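Researcher: I'm preparing a figure for a lab meeting and need a structural model of a single chain. I don't have an experimental structure, so a prediction will have to do for now. The sequence is pasted below. Please return the structure as tokens so I can convert it later.
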Amino acid sequence: MLKAKTALVTGSTSGIGLGMARALAGAGANVLLNGFGDGAEIEKLRAGIESEFGVQVAYDNADMTRPDQIEKMITSAEQRFGGIDILVNNAGIQHVAPVDQFPTERWDAIIAINLSSAFHTIRCTLPAMKSRGWGRIVNIASVHGLVASVEKAAYVAAKHGIVGLTKVVALENARSGITCNAICPGWVLTPLVQKQIDARAAAQGISVEEAKVALLSEKQPSVDFVTPEQIGELLLFLCSDAAQQVRGAAWTIDGGWTAQ
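Model: Understood. Here is the structure written out token by token.
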């Protein structure tokens, strides 16, 4: 479906980002991975995806808080692959604290990585997309781009900003072959979330399964996790010709969280 296309997925060395990178590679796209982690493990991931799907896979360790490094990454990708056709903004971090106790440096870091980095990748990739007359920009927001939770001021602010940025980019390119949409997941079972479940189980003296149900029951009516693979399949739809008129959407995949 995406043969001869090239995709950049930020924050793709684990979790949701890695699941989406694998989905894109499985559909025939060349992939540029980005994110932090152990160099040897990342190389193993890169080579594994390349071998499994028979596509080109590269890695760039650009720091998403640094506009100069973002620009360099995209220039390098354009030189190597001829351009970025699919941009997936997924890089993100989290910190939890009440507003009046929220460390200012954590606020700045979350806004930089979760919101500003998407602005920089979009502004750098749009010119080449326009010249080719085709592009797919998919921003990974969150249910927290639509609703709020306590003690997540920076994250919620950034994700609401991502949804707004998505709409503006979609409108500015509405008469072109370039679409821009947001995916808004609820709870996704990633290694980070599994740690939260394990910690809850240990703290409350309950089983891991009971801790999982307790976590999900607070917000997600399906009481089941969204998987990175499901998000990857939704991403492929948004990259398809069938989604040509899906523009500026904030598409929830949240087990009913925002239906309440």
